[in-house]
Write a sequence for this structure.
Protein backbone atom coordinates (compact mmCIF):
# COMPACT_ATOMS: atom_id res chain seq x y z
CA UNK A 1 0.00 0.00 0.00
CA UNK A 2 1.39 3.41 -0.96
CA UNK A 3 2.07 6.14 1.58
CA UNK A 4 -0.86 8.28 0.41
CA UNK A 5 -3.25 5.33 0.50
CA UNK A 6 -2.18 4.63 4.09
CA UNK A 7 -2.70 8.28 4.96
CA UNK A 8 -6.12 8.24 3.32
CA UNK A 9 -7.06 5.17 5.32
CA UNK A 10 -5.84 6.79 8.52
CA UNK A 11 -7.92 9.92 7.92
CA UNK A 12 -10.98 7.82 7.16
CA UNK A 13 -10.43 5.78 10.34
CA UNK A 14 -10.06 9.00 12.27
CA UNK A 15 -13.35 10.30 10.84
CA UNK A 16 -15.47 7.19 11.36
CA UNK A 17 -14.24 6.52 14.90
CA UNK A 18 -15.35 9.92 16.19
CA UNK A 19 -18.97 9.23 17.08
CA UNK A 20 -20.00 12.88 17.03
CA UNK A 21 -18.82 13.32 13.46
CA UNK A 22 -20.68 10.26 12.24
CA UNK A 23 -23.82 11.39 14.06
CA UNK A 24 -23.48 14.86 12.49
CA UNK A 25 -23.15 13.31 9.04
CA UNK A 26 -26.29 11.25 9.56
CA UNK A 27 -28.11 14.25 11.05
CA UNK A 28 -27.32 16.31 7.96
CA UNK A 29 -28.73 13.62 5.69
CA UNK A 30 -31.77 13.21 7.96
CA UNK A 31 -32.44 16.96 7.79
CA UNK A 32 -32.53 16.82 4.00
CA UNK A 33 -34.95 13.89 4.06
CA UNK A 34 -37.14 15.12 6.91
CA UNK A 35 -37.57 18.70 5.72
CA UNK A 36 -37.93 17.55 2.14
CA UNK A 37 -40.91 15.36 2.95
CA UNK A 38 -42.51 17.76 5.42
CA UNK A 39 -44.20 20.04 2.82
CA UNK A 40 -46.34 17.09 1.80
CA UNK A 41 -48.22 17.27 5.10
CA UNK A 42 -50.18 20.37 4.10
CA UNK A 43 -51.08 22.67 1.20
CA UNK A 44 -52.55 22.13 -2.21
CA UNK A 45 -51.70 23.24 -5.72
CA UNK A 46 -48.90 25.16 -4.10
CA UNK A 47 -51.58 27.38 -2.52
CA UNK A 48 -54.95 26.25 -1.09
CA UNK A 49 -57.94 24.20 -2.22
CA UNK A 50 -58.98 20.63 -2.95
CA UNK A 51 -56.74 18.32 -4.89
CA UNK A 52 -59.27 18.28 -7.73
CA UNK A 53 -58.31 21.90 -8.45
CA UNK A 54 -54.75 20.81 -9.18
CA UNK A 55 -55.36 19.14 -12.52
CA UNK A 56 -53.51 20.65 -15.46
CA UNK A 57 -54.59 20.00 -19.06
CA UNK A 58 -52.25 18.29 -21.46
CA UNK A 59 -51.57 19.36 -25.02
CA UNK A 60 -51.38 17.30 -28.21
CA UNK A 61 -47.91 16.02 -27.29
CA UNK A 62 -48.92 14.99 -23.75
CA UNK A 63 -47.14 17.91 -22.08
CA UNK A 64 -48.92 20.08 -19.53
CA UNK A 65 -50.25 23.35 -20.85
CA UNK A 66 -52.25 26.47 -20.04
CA UNK A 67 -55.23 27.02 -22.34
CA UNK A 68 -57.32 30.00 -21.19
CA UNK A 69 -58.62 32.67 -23.56
CA UNK A 70 -61.76 34.23 -24.99
CA UNK A 71 -62.74 32.83 -28.37
CA UNK A 72 -65.16 34.34 -30.91
CA UNK A 73 -65.54 31.68 -33.56
CA UNK A 74 -67.37 30.10 -36.46
CA UNK A 75 -66.89 26.70 -38.06
CA UNK A 76 -64.69 26.28 -41.13
CA UNK A 77 -65.19 23.15 -43.24
CA UNK A 78 -62.24 22.14 -45.41
CA UNK A 79 -59.69 24.64 -46.61
CA UNK A 80 -60.09 28.38 -46.25
CA UNK A 81 -58.74 31.53 -44.63
CA UNK A 82 -59.69 34.30 -42.23
CA UNK A 83 -58.30 37.83 -42.43
CA UNK A 84 -58.74 40.68 -39.94
CA UNK A 85 -57.31 44.05 -39.04
CA UNK A 86 -56.29 44.60 -35.40
CA UNK A 87 -56.65 48.24 -34.44
CA UNK A 88 -55.92 48.21 -30.72
CA UNK A 89 -54.68 46.08 -27.84
CA UNK A 90 -54.68 47.27 -24.22
CA UNK A 91 -54.48 45.51 -20.85
CA UNK A 92 -55.69 46.37 -17.36
CA UNK A 93 -55.37 44.88 -13.90
CA UNK A 94 -57.37 45.40 -10.69
CA UNK A 95 -56.85 48.52 -8.63
CA UNK A 96 -54.71 47.90 -5.49
CA UNK A 97 -56.14 47.33 -2.05
CA UNK A 98 -59.71 46.58 -3.16
CA UNK A 99 -60.89 46.75 0.48
CA UNK A 100 -59.97 50.44 0.66
CA UNK A 101 -61.43 51.78 -2.54
CA UNK A 102 -64.10 50.99 -5.10
CA UNK A 103 -63.31 48.03 -7.37
CA UNK A 104 -61.84 49.10 -10.65
CA UNK A 105 -58.91 48.69 -13.00
CA UNK A 106 -55.79 50.50 -14.00
CA UNK A 107 -53.68 50.18 -17.17
CA UNK A 108 -50.97 47.54 -17.14
CA UNK A 109 -48.24 46.56 -19.56
CA UNK A 110 -48.56 42.81 -20.12
CA UNK A 111 -45.75 42.02 -22.60
CA UNK A 112 -47.27 38.71 -23.71
CA UNK A 113 -50.93 39.73 -23.96
CA UNK A 114 -52.21 38.27 -27.24
CA UNK A 115 -54.90 39.15 -29.75
CA UNK A 116 -55.41 37.68 -33.18
CA UNK A 117 -56.69 34.70 -35.14
CA UNK A 118 -56.73 31.08 -34.04
CA UNK A 119 -57.73 27.75 -35.55
CA UNK A 120 -58.33 24.98 -33.07
CA UNK A 121 -59.03 21.26 -33.36
CA UNK A 122 -61.97 21.79 -30.99
CA UNK A 123 -63.04 23.90 -28.06
CA UNK A 124 -61.71 21.32 -25.58
CA UNK A 125 -58.93 22.61 -23.36
CA UNK A 126 -55.55 21.37 -24.56
CA UNK A 127 -56.61 20.65 -28.14
CA UNK A 128 -54.25 21.34 -31.04
CA UNK A 129 -54.17 24.87 -32.44
CA UNK A 130 -52.30 27.40 -34.54
CA UNK A 131 -52.58 31.15 -34.09
CA UNK A 132 -51.23 34.39 -35.48
CA UNK A 133 -51.31 37.35 -33.12
CA UNK A 134 -50.12 40.78 -32.07
CA UNK A 135 -48.52 41.47 -28.68
CA UNK A 136 -47.69 44.71 -26.83
CA UNK A 137 -43.94 44.08 -26.51
CA UNK A 138 -42.98 41.18 -28.79
CA UNK A 139 -44.44 42.19 -32.13
CA UNK A 140 -46.41 39.83 -34.32
CA UNK A 141 -46.04 36.13 -33.56
CA UNK A 142 -47.20 32.78 -34.84
CA UNK A 143 -47.62 30.08 -32.21
CA UNK A 144 -48.91 26.53 -32.34
CA UNK A 145 -49.47 23.63 -29.98
CA UNK A 146 -48.40 25.67 -26.92
CA UNK A 147 -44.61 25.22 -27.25
CA UNK A 148 -43.81 26.60 -30.71
CA UNK A 149 -43.27 30.33 -31.22
CA UNK A 150 -42.13 32.16 -34.36
CA UNK A 151 -41.40 35.87 -34.49
CA UNK A 152 -42.93 38.12 -37.14
CA UNK A 153 -42.73 41.89 -37.73
CA UNK A 154 -41.83 43.98 -34.69
CA UNK A 155 -43.87 46.81 -33.27
CA UNK A 156 -47.03 47.26 -31.25
CA UNK A 157 -50.54 47.87 -32.57
CA UNK A 158 -52.64 51.04 -32.33
CA UNK A 159 -55.30 52.94 -34.25
CA UNK A 160 -52.54 54.85 -36.02
CA UNK A 161 -50.52 51.70 -36.67
CA UNK A 162 -52.85 48.72 -37.17
CA UNK A 163 -51.81 45.23 -38.24
CA UNK A 164 -53.59 42.89 -40.62
CA UNK A 165 -53.44 39.20 -39.78
CA UNK A 166 -54.32 36.18 -41.91
CA UNK A 167 -54.64 32.50 -41.03
CA UNK A 168 -54.93 30.02 -43.92
CA UNK A 169 -55.77 26.33 -43.79
CA UNK A 170 -54.66 23.88 -46.50
CA UNK A 171 -55.61 20.43 -45.18
CA UNK A 172 -53.47 19.97 -42.04
CA UNK A 173 -51.08 22.84 -42.83
CA UNK A 174 -51.80 26.22 -41.26
CA UNK A 175 -50.02 29.34 -42.50
CA UNK A 176 -49.85 32.62 -40.61
CA UNK A 177 -49.19 35.94 -42.32
CA UNK A 178 -49.14 39.63 -41.39
CA UNK A 179 -49.33 42.96 -43.16
CA UNK A 180 -49.06 46.63 -42.22
CA UNK A 181 -51.27 47.85 -45.06
CA UNK A 182 -53.55 44.93 -45.97
CA UNK A 183 -51.90 44.62 -49.40
CA UNK A 184 -48.31 43.48 -48.94
CA UNK A 185 -48.14 40.30 -46.86
CA UNK A 186 -45.31 38.62 -44.99
CA UNK A 187 -45.55 34.91 -44.19
CA UNK A 188 -44.55 34.35 -40.55
CA UNK A 189 -44.60 30.58 -40.41
CA UNK A 190 -46.50 27.35 -40.90
CA UNK A 191 -47.76 24.68 -38.53
CA UNK A 192 -48.57 21.05 -39.22
CA UNK A 193 -51.65 20.04 -37.21
CA UNK A 194 -51.75 16.38 -38.20
CA UNK A 195 -55.18 14.84 -37.80
CA UNK A 196 -57.05 18.16 -37.84
CA UNK A 197 -60.81 17.47 -38.24
CA UNK A 198 -62.55 18.50 -41.45
CA UNK A 199 -64.70 21.04 -39.61
CA UNK A 200 -62.97 23.16 -36.95
CA UNK A 201 -63.68 26.35 -35.01
CA UNK A 202 -61.78 29.38 -36.31
CA UNK A 203 -61.98 32.97 -35.21
CA UNK A 204 -60.77 35.84 -33.05
CA UNK A 205 -59.10 35.38 -29.69
CA UNK A 206 -57.76 37.55 -26.88
CA UNK A 207 -55.89 36.54 -23.73
CA UNK A 208 -53.75 38.25 -21.11
CA UNK A 209 -51.41 36.46 -18.66
CA UNK A 210 -51.14 37.27 -15.00
CA UNK A 211 -49.45 40.55 -14.16
CA UNK A 212 -46.36 40.17 -12.04
CA UNK A 213 -43.43 42.20 -10.86
CA UNK A 214 -40.80 42.10 -8.15
CA UNK A 215 -41.85 44.57 -5.44
CA UNK A 216 -39.49 46.11 -2.87
CA UNK A 217 -40.96 46.69 0.57
CA UNK A 218 -38.31 48.28 2.73
CA UNK A 219 -35.44 45.80 2.94
CA UNK A 220 -37.56 42.90 1.68
CA UNK A 221 -38.28 41.76 -1.86
CA UNK A 222 -41.59 40.14 -2.75
CA UNK A 223 -43.83 39.38 -5.69
CA UNK A 224 -46.76 41.56 -6.67
CA UNK A 225 -49.15 39.61 -8.89
CA UNK A 226 -52.72 39.92 -10.09
CA UNK A 227 -54.89 38.74 -12.98
CA UNK A 228 -55.12 40.96 -16.03
CA UNK A 229 -57.56 41.51 -18.88
CA UNK A 230 -56.70 42.45 -22.46
CA UNK A 231 -59.11 44.12 -24.86
CA UNK A 232 -58.56 44.25 -28.61
CA UNK A 233 -60.36 45.96 -31.47
CA UNK A 234 -60.89 44.11 -34.76
CA UNK A 235 -62.45 45.12 -38.08
CA UNK A 236 -62.29 44.44 -41.85
CA UNK A 237 -62.87 40.75 -41.21
CA UNK A 238 -63.07 38.64 -44.39
CA UNK A 239 -63.49 34.91 -44.92
CA UNK A 240 -62.68 32.50 -47.73
CA UNK A 241 -63.84 28.90 -47.92
CA UNK A 242 -66.92 27.14 -46.55
CA UNK A 243 -68.25 28.68 -43.32
CA UNK A 244 -71.58 26.96 -42.53
CA UNK A 245 -72.41 29.02 -39.41
CA UNK A 246 -74.54 32.12 -39.73
CA UNK A 247 -73.35 33.87 -36.59
CA UNK A 248 -70.35 34.24 -34.33
CA UNK A 249 -70.19 32.44 -31.00
CA UNK A 250 -68.33 33.81 -27.98
CA UNK A 251 -66.82 31.31 -25.55
CA UNK A 252 -64.40 31.46 -22.60
CA UNK A 253 -62.00 28.56 -23.18
CA UNK A 254 -60.50 26.93 -20.13
CA UNK A 255 -62.53 28.66 -17.45
CA UNK A 256 -65.19 31.20 -16.64
CA UNK A 257 -65.55 34.58 -18.30
CA UNK A 258 -64.65 36.34 -15.05
CA UNK A 259 -66.68 39.02 -13.33
CA UNK A 260 -66.70 42.71 -12.52
CA UNK A 261 -64.03 44.88 -14.12
CA UNK A 262 -62.14 41.82 -15.41
CA UNK A 263 -65.04 40.20 -17.23
CA UNK A 264 -64.24 38.56 -20.58
CA UNK A 265 -66.58 38.80 -23.53
CA UNK A 266 -67.14 40.42 -26.91
CA UNK A 267 -69.24 43.03 -28.65
CA UNK A 268 -70.00 43.10 -32.36
CA UNK A 269 -70.84 46.27 -34.24
CA UNK A 270 -71.34 45.45 -37.89
CA UNK A 271 -68.02 44.07 -39.11
CA UNK A 272 -66.19 45.36 -36.07
CA UNK A 273 -65.48 43.42 -32.88
CA UNK A 274 -64.28 44.33 -29.43
CA UNK A 275 -63.02 41.25 -27.57
CA UNK A 276 -61.72 40.97 -23.99
CA UNK A 277 -59.99 37.95 -22.53
CA UNK A 278 -57.76 36.75 -19.73
CA UNK A 279 -55.35 33.83 -19.30
CA UNK A 280 -52.71 32.38 -21.59
CA UNK A 281 -52.12 29.79 -24.30
CA UNK A 282 -48.70 28.41 -23.46
CA UNK A 283 -46.72 25.71 -21.66
CA UNK A 284 -47.74 25.21 -18.03
CA UNK A 285 -45.17 26.72 -15.68
CA UNK A 286 -44.41 26.93 -12.00
CA UNK A 287 -43.72 30.14 -10.10
CA UNK A 288 -45.95 33.13 -9.57
CA UNK A 289 -47.48 32.96 -13.05
CA UNK A 290 -48.22 29.27 -12.81
CA UNK A 291 -49.58 26.53 -10.64
CA UNK A 292 -48.07 24.27 -8.01
CA UNK A 293 -44.42 23.61 -7.44
CA UNK A 294 -41.52 21.55 -8.78
CA UNK A 295 -39.51 18.64 -7.45
CA UNK A 296 -36.90 21.16 -6.32
CA UNK A 297 -39.27 21.95 -3.43
CA UNK A 298 -38.53 18.51 -2.01
CA UNK A 299 -34.88 19.54 -1.57
CA UNK A 300 -35.68 22.48 0.71
CA UNK A 301 -33.85 20.62 3.50
CA UNK A 302 -30.57 21.09 1.64
CA UNK A 303 -29.99 24.32 3.55
CA UNK A 304 -30.18 22.63 6.94
CA UNK A 305 -28.09 19.70 5.74
CA UNK A 306 -25.56 22.06 4.20
CA UNK A 307 -24.98 23.91 7.45
CA UNK A 308 -24.46 20.63 9.30
CA UNK A 309 -21.95 19.47 6.67
CA UNK A 310 -20.12 22.81 6.86
CA UNK A 311 -19.76 22.52 10.63
CA UNK A 312 -18.61 18.93 10.29
CA UNK A 313 -16.02 19.75 7.63
CA UNK A 314 -14.48 22.61 9.59
CA UNK A 315 -14.27 20.51 12.75
CA UNK A 316 -12.46 17.80 10.80
CA UNK A 317 -9.43 20.10 10.74
CA UNK A 318 -9.98 22.70 13.47
CA UNK A 319 -10.44 20.06 16.18
CA UNK A 320 -6.89 18.90 15.58
CA UNK A 321 -5.60 22.43 15.98
CA UNK A 322 -7.64 23.02 19.14
CA UNK A 323 -6.43 19.82 20.78
CA UNK A 324 -2.89 19.98 19.45
CA UNK A 325 -3.32 16.71 17.55
CA UNK A 326 -2.19 18.29 14.29
CA UNK A 327 1.41 17.92 15.47
CA UNK A 328 0.90 14.19 15.88
CA UNK A 329 -0.65 13.97 12.44
CA UNK A 330 2.23 15.86 10.81
CA UNK A 331 4.81 13.82 12.71
CA UNK A 332 3.31 10.62 11.34
CA UNK A 333 2.81 12.14 7.87
CA UNK A 334 5.23 15.04 7.32
CA UNK A 335 4.09 15.65 3.71
CA UNK A 336 1.55 18.34 4.43
CA UNK A 337 0.17 18.41 0.89
CA UNK A 338 -0.81 14.78 1.27
CA UNK A 339 -2.42 15.39 4.67
CA UNK A 340 -4.61 18.19 3.35
CA UNK A 341 -5.50 16.23 0.20
CA UNK A 342 -6.43 13.15 2.25
CA UNK A 343 -8.66 15.19 4.55
CA UNK A 344 -10.35 16.85 1.55
CA UNK A 345 -10.99 13.48 -0.10
CA UNK A 346 -12.38 11.92 3.05
CA UNK A 347 -14.71 14.76 4.00
CA UNK A 348 -15.73 15.30 0.38
CA UNK A 349 -16.52 11.60 -0.13
CA UNK A 350 -18.35 11.27 3.19
CA UNK A 351 -20.60 14.27 2.56
CA UNK A 352 -21.13 13.24 -1.05
CA UNK A 353 -22.34 9.75 -0.11
CA UNK A 354 -24.58 11.13 2.66
CA UNK A 355 -26.06 13.73 0.35
CA UNK A 356 -26.50 11.18 -2.43
CA UNK A 357 -28.41 8.83 -0.14
CA UNK A 358 -30.64 11.63 1.18
CA UNK A 359 -31.42 13.07 -2.26
CA UNK A 360 -32.05 9.58 -3.66
CA UNK A 361 -34.82 9.19 -1.06
CA UNK A 362 -36.32 12.67 -1.32
CA UNK A 363 -36.39 13.25 -5.08
CA UNK A 364 -38.55 10.24 -6.00
CA UNK A 365 -40.55 9.99 -2.76
CA UNK A 366 -41.16 13.68 -2.05
CA UNK A 367 -43.35 14.40 -5.11
CA UNK A 368 -45.51 11.36 -4.36
CA UNK A 369 -46.20 12.63 -0.85
CA UNK A 370 -46.85 16.14 -2.11
CA UNK A 371 -49.31 14.93 -4.74
CA UNK A 372 -50.98 12.68 -2.20
CA UNK A 373 -51.63 15.75 -0.05
CA UNK A 374 -53.11 17.82 -2.87
CA UNK A 375 -50.00 19.70 -3.99
CA UNK A 376 -49.55 19.85 -7.74
CA UNK A 377 -45.95 19.00 -8.71
CA UNK A 378 -44.80 19.62 -12.24
CA UNK A 379 -43.32 16.46 -13.75
CA UNK A 380 -39.62 16.22 -14.48
CA UNK A 381 -37.66 13.96 -16.78
CA UNK A 382 -35.57 11.09 -15.44
CA UNK A 383 -32.41 12.95 -16.43
CA UNK A 384 -33.52 15.97 -14.41
CA UNK A 385 -34.20 13.79 -11.38
CA UNK A 386 -30.76 12.19 -11.70
CA UNK A 387 -29.16 15.64 -11.96
CA UNK A 388 -30.92 16.75 -8.79
CA UNK A 389 -29.77 13.65 -6.91
CA UNK A 390 -26.12 13.68 -7.99
CA UNK A 391 -25.94 17.48 -8.16
CA UNK A 392 -27.17 17.89 -4.58
CA UNK A 393 -24.55 15.41 -3.41
CA UNK A 394 -21.85 17.33 -5.31
CA UNK A 395 -23.12 20.62 -3.85
CA UNK A 396 -22.69 19.30 -0.31
CA UNK A 397 -19.28 17.82 -1.09
CA UNK A 398 -18.02 21.03 -2.69
CA UNK A 399 -19.22 23.09 0.27
CA UNK A 400 -17.52 20.65 2.67
CA UNK A 401 -14.19 20.93 0.86
CA UNK A 402 -14.52 24.73 0.86
CA UNK A 403 -15.25 24.63 4.59
CA UNK A 404 -12.24 22.39 5.21
CA UNK A 405 -10.00 24.78 3.32
CA UNK A 406 -11.26 27.82 5.24
CA UNK A 407 -10.96 25.89 8.50
CA UNK A 408 -7.33 25.18 7.63
CA UNK A 409 -6.74 28.89 7.07
CA UNK A 410 -8.44 30.30 10.17
CA UNK A 411 -7.98 27.27 12.52
CA UNK A 412 -11.15 28.13 14.47
CA UNK A 413 -14.43 26.32 13.97
CA UNK A 414 -16.80 29.21 14.66
CA UNK A 415 -14.91 31.62 12.42
CA UNK A 416 -14.66 29.08 9.60
CA UNK A 417 -18.33 28.11 9.80
CA UNK A 418 -19.39 31.75 9.76
CA UNK A 419 -17.16 32.49 6.77
CA UNK A 420 -18.52 29.60 4.72
CA UNK A 421 -22.13 30.46 5.53
CA UNK A 422 -21.43 34.06 4.51
CA UNK A 423 -20.10 33.03 1.09
CA UNK A 424 -22.61 30.26 0.31
CA UNK A 425 -25.88 30.62 2.21
CA UNK A 426 -26.05 34.38 2.75
CA UNK A 427 -25.80 35.36 -0.95
CA UNK A 428 -28.69 33.04 -1.74
CA UNK A 429 -30.87 34.41 1.06
CA UNK A 430 -30.09 37.98 0.00
CA UNK A 431 -30.88 37.16 -3.62
CA UNK A 432 -34.33 35.74 -2.89
CA UNK A 433 -35.47 38.16 -0.23
CA UNK A 434 -33.63 41.50 -0.21
CA UNK A 435 -31.69 42.49 -3.31
CA UNK A 436 -33.08 43.92 -6.55
CA UNK A 437 -33.06 41.62 -9.56
CA UNK A 438 -29.79 42.85 -11.07
CA UNK A 439 -27.76 42.50 -7.88
CA UNK A 440 -29.40 39.16 -7.09
CA UNK A 441 -28.49 37.79 -10.52
CA UNK A 442 -24.92 38.99 -10.09
CA UNK A 443 -24.54 37.30 -6.70
CA UNK A 444 -25.88 34.05 -8.04
CA UNK A 445 -23.33 34.13 -10.83
CA UNK A 446 -20.10 34.89 -9.00
CA UNK A 447 -20.48 33.51 -5.46
CA UNK A 448 -20.48 29.85 -4.38
CA UNK A 449 -24.27 30.19 -4.01
CA UNK A 450 -24.37 29.75 -7.79
CA UNK A 451 -24.18 26.01 -7.09
CA UNK A 452 -27.86 25.96 -6.06
CA UNK A 453 -28.61 26.20 -9.79
CA UNK A 454 -27.89 22.47 -9.97
CA UNK A 455 -31.22 21.93 -8.20
CA UNK A 456 -33.26 23.87 -10.76
CA UNK A 457 -36.04 21.79 -12.30
CA UNK A 458 -38.36 24.58 -13.45
CA UNK A 459 -38.25 25.28 -17.18
CA UNK A 460 -38.00 28.83 -18.44
CA UNK A 461 -39.99 29.56 -21.60
CA UNK A 462 -39.22 32.87 -23.32
CA UNK A 463 -42.82 33.20 -24.56
CA UNK A 464 -44.33 32.94 -21.06
CA UNK A 465 -44.77 35.87 -18.69
CA UNK A 466 -43.39 34.84 -15.31
CA UNK A 467 -41.19 36.10 -12.50
CA UNK A 468 -37.93 34.34 -13.21
CA UNK A 469 -35.90 34.55 -10.01
CA UNK A 470 -34.25 32.17 -7.56
CA UNK A 471 -37.12 32.32 -5.07
CA UNK A 472 -39.31 30.77 -7.77
CA UNK A 473 -36.73 28.18 -8.78
CA UNK A 474 -34.96 29.98 -11.63
CA UNK A 475 -31.23 30.76 -11.68
CA UNK A 476 -29.08 32.88 -14.03
CA UNK A 477 -26.58 30.07 -14.71
CA UNK A 478 -27.08 26.62 -16.18
CA UNK A 479 -27.17 23.87 -13.52
CA UNK A 480 -23.70 22.38 -14.05
CA UNK A 481 -22.19 25.82 -14.69
CA UNK A 482 -23.45 26.99 -11.30
CA UNK A 483 -21.97 23.92 -9.63
CA UNK A 484 -18.67 24.59 -11.42
CA UNK A 485 -18.55 28.05 -9.80
CA UNK A 486 -18.60 26.38 -6.37
CA UNK A 487 -15.95 23.95 -7.56
CA UNK A 488 -13.76 26.86 -8.60
CA UNK A 489 -14.13 28.55 -5.21
CA UNK A 490 -13.36 25.29 -3.41
CA UNK A 491 -10.27 24.69 -5.56
CA UNK A 492 -9.06 28.25 -4.99
CA UNK A 493 -9.61 28.04 -1.24
CA UNK A 494 -7.88 24.67 -1.11
CA UNK A 495 -4.92 26.08 -3.03
CA UNK A 496 -4.57 29.03 -0.62
CA UNK A 497 -4.98 26.66 2.35
CA UNK A 498 -2.25 24.41 0.94
CA UNK A 499 0.13 27.37 0.69
CA UNK A 500 -0.61 28.51 4.26
CA UNK A 501 -0.53 24.96 5.63
CA UNK A 502 2.99 24.39 4.24
CA UNK A 503 4.41 27.67 5.51
CA UNK A 504 2.91 27.97 8.99
CA UNK A 505 3.83 26.12 12.14
CA UNK A 506 1.44 23.49 13.38
Amino acid sequence: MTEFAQLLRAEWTKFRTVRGWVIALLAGAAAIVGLGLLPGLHGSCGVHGPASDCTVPTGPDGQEVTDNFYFVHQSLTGDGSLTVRVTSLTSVRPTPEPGHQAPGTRPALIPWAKAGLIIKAGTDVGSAYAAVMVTPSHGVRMQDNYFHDTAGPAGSVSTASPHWLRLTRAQDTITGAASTDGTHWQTIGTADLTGLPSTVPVGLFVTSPQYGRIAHRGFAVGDETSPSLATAGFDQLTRQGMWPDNRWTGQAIGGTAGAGPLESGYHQDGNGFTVSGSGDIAPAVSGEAGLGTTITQTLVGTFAGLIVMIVLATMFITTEYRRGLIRTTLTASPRRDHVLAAKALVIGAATYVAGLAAAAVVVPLGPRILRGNGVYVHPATSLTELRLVFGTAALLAGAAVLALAIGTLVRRSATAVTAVIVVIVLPYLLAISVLPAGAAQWLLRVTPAAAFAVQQSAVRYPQVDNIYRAADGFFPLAPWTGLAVLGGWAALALGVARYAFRRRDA
User: Anything to note?
Assistant: The radius of gyration is 29 Å.
